Amino acid sequence: MNLLASFFSALRAPRRLALAGALLLAAGGQARAQAPSQQLRAAKTERLSQLDNARIAFFTSRLSLTQDQAQRFWPLYTEFITRRRELNRTGRPLKREQIEALTDPQIREHLAQIYITRQQELNLEKEYFNRFQKVLSLRQVAQLLAAERDFTKEVIRRVAATPGAPAPGAPE
């Protein structure tokens, strides 16, 4: 099905139906005949793409975006998400095994880097808060923050309810 057609049909469907359909898309995935590492990378990329599509349907419904707002908001939000993901990659917390192998000064340096990354994330959010207000009403910006939180909770709930899925926080 054409991605745009499914997106616009989701906009016309009732909110719960659109959410359910988008999340079902995110839960499904097809394996390809590839080498295992390529297959895992392709599957992860596919899951991220499906998750992004589900996010678009969920947020568009929650924020009641007009077509004009959607055209201006989504490129901006995609830029924000990309920058936030880049920051998250650099600021991953230490695993228990790593802590045992490090000296106290190394641990202190790592923790300091985590706090620097958190501050950078906060600065990024503030920057985009101001940029989002140029496209959305203040009420919609507040709804966006709530929608992000609700979407994350819903994804975690669905993953936890999927038989055979790893528990949230478990290594893949």
How would you describe what is shown here?
By secondary structure, the protein is mostly helical. The protein is built from seven helices and no strands. The two termini are 30 Å apart.
Structural features:
mainly alpha; disordered N terminus; 7 helices; 172 residues
In total, the number of strands is 0
Label the overall shape. globular
What structural class do the secondary elements suggest?
A: mainly alpha
On the 0-100 scale, what is the average pLDDT? Answer: 79
Q: So how many helices?
A: 7
What fraction, in percent, of the residue positions are helical?
A: over 70%
In short:
The protein has 172 residues and is mainly α.
List the helices and strands and how they pair.
Elements: H1 3-12, H2 15-27, H3 36-63, H4 67-90, H5 96-101, H6 104-132, H7 138-161
Helix pairs in contact: 1-2, 2-3, 3-7, 4-6
